[in-house]
Every structure is written in structure tokens, then in C-alpha cells.
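sry for the spam today, last one i promise. C-alpha cells for design, 191 residues
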């Protein structure tokens, strides 16, 4: 899911992750989920760490999928369903979920296109992929890029329009929900 070095770092970082990371912004995620043409009963929180971004969402069943076993243990300790897995090979059947969430993590994935294709395959028609990311051209975005490079992460960032184009190439209909330091791109599976 993450690059090998990133996965090891997140595995070690799992116990203190919640204390060091700011809370996830729920409103943009909810706005993205609202674009689904179906009720969202099952959501995958991919590269979801301890489930911070999906916590508090009104979704009957959420499963956190992360490559770092320590993050999955934290998600389980928080009462979440969790599975150790690769974003490019999700541990679910095709067309089995209503939404896939990738929050503040796509930039860590070594093969973003494969992860987006896997998300599309997992979605039922009318379902949505919701991606929250950091825009590297904003001042705060440049700080995040520099900080991740300084700690040795293999992160690759892109802005909302480039991500929307990438999402569209996977066969999803893209919508940029919001822009700024933290932005949201949604891809809807039409068929």
C-alpha cells in the first residue's frame, strides 16, 4: 500500500499517530459521499491508518485497509473492522462496496493508478471514491511536502485538477468538491 519505507514508518508510528495528527475534516468527506447515487452502507477506508478519517461517519459498515499491521491493530483497538492489505489489490470482491475513502494517504502509495483501479473495481455502480489530499502548490502544502521528504517518505503529491484527470482515466466520473491546502476529489462509478 505505502512504499516499503513508508509502511515500516507508519507501523512504528501507529501508537502515537492519533496524538500527533490533527483530526480529519469530516465535512468534505461527507460532501463527497453525498455524491453517490446509492446509499452508502459499506465503506472501505483505504490506507486508513487507525480509521481517523472514517470515524464518526454515518455508515453502517466501515472496514479500514492498511498495509501497516500496527495501524490495523490501532483500528481494531478503536472498535473498527480492519484488514492488512495493499491498496492496489484490495481484499474485497469486485462491486462489493458503496464507497472507498483515501484520506491524506494517496501521496504515499507507490502505484496510485493501480490503487485507483482497485478502488473502481471494488465500487458498486453509483458508488464513489472520495480522495482527500494536500495541494503541493499552497504554502502549507509545500511545508507538508518538505516535511515528508525530510523524514524520508517516498511521497508524490499532485493538485486537484491533475488528480481529477487521473481519476477520470480509471473510468470514474470526477468532481473536485473543494480546493485549498486540503482538497477533495470524488470519482463516481457510473456503471
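last one done:
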Amino acid at each position: 500500500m505505502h512504499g516499503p519505507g513508508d509502511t515500516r514508518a507508519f507501523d512504528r508510528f501507529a501508537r502515537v499517530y492519533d496524538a500527533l495528527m490533527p483530526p480529519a475534516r469530516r465535512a468534505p468527506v461527507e460532501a463527497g459521499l453525498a455524491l453517490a447515487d446509492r446509499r452508502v452502507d459499506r465503506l472501505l477506508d483505504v490506507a486508513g491508518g487507525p480509521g481517523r478519517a472514517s470515524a464518526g461517519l454515518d455508515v453502517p459498515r466501515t472496514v479500514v485497509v492498511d498495509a501497516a499491521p500496527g495501524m490495523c491493530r490501532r483500528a481494531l483497538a478503536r472498535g473498527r473492522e480492519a484488514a492488512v492489505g495493499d491498496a492496489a489489490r484490495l481484499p474485497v470482491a469486485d462491486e462489493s462496496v458503496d464507497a472507498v475513502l483515501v484520506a491524506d494517504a494517496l501521496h504515499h502509495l507507490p502505484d496510485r493508478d493501480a490503487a485507483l483501479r482497485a478502488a473502481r473495481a471494488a465500487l458498486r455502480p453509483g458508488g464513489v471514491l472520495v480522495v482527500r489530499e494536500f495541494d503541493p502548490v499552497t504554502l502549507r502544502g509545500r511545508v507538508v511536502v518538505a516535511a515528508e521528504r525530510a523524514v524520508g517518505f517516498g511521497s508524490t503529491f499532485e493538485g486537484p485538477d491533475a488528480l481529477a484527470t487521473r481519476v477520470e482515466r480509471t473510468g470514474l466520473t470526477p468532481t473536485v468538491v473543494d480546493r485549498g491546502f486540503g482538497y477533495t476529489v470524488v470519482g463516481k462509478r457510473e456503471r
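The longest helix spans residues 4-20. ok im logging off now
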